[in-house]
Give the backbone structure.
Amino acid sequence: MTTLQATFCGQTYDNPFMNASGVHCMTTAELDELANSAAGSFVTKSATADSREGNPEPRYINLALGSINSMGLPNLGLAYYLADAIKRQTETPDVPFIMSVASYKGFDEYVDNMRQIQDSDYTGLVELNLSCPNVPGKPQMAYDFEDTARLLIEIFSFYTKPFGVKLPPYFDIQHFDKIAAVLNQFDLKFVNCINSIGNGLYIDEATDTVVIKPKGGFGGIGGEYVKPTALANVRALKQRLNPSIEIIGTGGILTGRDAYEHLLCGASMLQVGTQLQKEGPAVFDRLNAELRHILETKGYTSIAEFKGKLATLD
Ligand SMILES: Cc1cc2nc3c(=O)[nH]c(=O)nc-3n(C[C@H](O)[C@H](O)[C@H](O)COP(=O)(O)O)c2cc1C
């Protein structure tokens, strides 16, 4: 019997698939749809301290090979997601999920948000988004290695619940080494690679104009475009991080084959952004069927048999 069961942070999930934060997870109603879908788990929209409208529209466009967006962190605020999370934790304790937390204002807001969660009744997983590329005038926290270390030192001085971090893509071997060296100093439960490839530019062929309004058309890229970068980040961090830090693979998952490749690189859970936006929650039925078919064709009965076992040519 083939199983797609995934183990992650001490829990077992029916399968490794989740939404990626920012897609189909803004409201309780959307989160309910994910909870009732074929996804193994789900994550909430990245919450800032206060609710935010986000950037002017158009701010998300589907492209043939993926998507470009500059959403500007629209969300209903931390209090909304915390209340929703505590309710879920009480009413459906056997359906684990992740709360995503971001910051619009920078260091202090990250700390204040985590303090609020520490002081709340929520005990589940938190994904700290250190990689929001679409806030005008704000750098991504995780591209500043010293600030990231400083932030994690501050958070770990009071935060006692399990959490991980969502990272932007890195493109240089030295940067893989540097971020891993920072993260290995902490008792992080997981790392999620990757957020969008920041600040791409797409030009409409018919009109010679950009396709989204914010930031002169610059936006985060997701979908098929980003898979090789995502796989490299999953693989590079898996090779460098303490074995106790698990990996969520995100970026360019459109098919069961894409999911399989993220697992080969060492991911434990898999998040789907652009393709979920394009296809809706039924994407999880298809991905489960396609991944199961791959396992059966290759003679595997479980993910553990090939997870992290990517072959190289040396
Ligand atoms: C519309 C949209 C909104 C997003 N919002 C967030 C967010 O709030 N927090 C976050 O960590 N990532 C956010 N992302 C990034 C995705 O979670 C994901 O990392 C990225 O799109 C790559 O995955 P994909 O190739 O499956 O799209 C967003 C992506 C999209 C397309």
Observations:
- Residues 61 and 167 are 23 Å apart (CA to CA).
- The pocket of flavin mononucleotide is lined by residues 20-23, 45-46, 60, 67, 69, 71, 100, 129, 166, 195-196, 222-223, 226, 250-253, 272-275, 277 (CB under 6 Å).
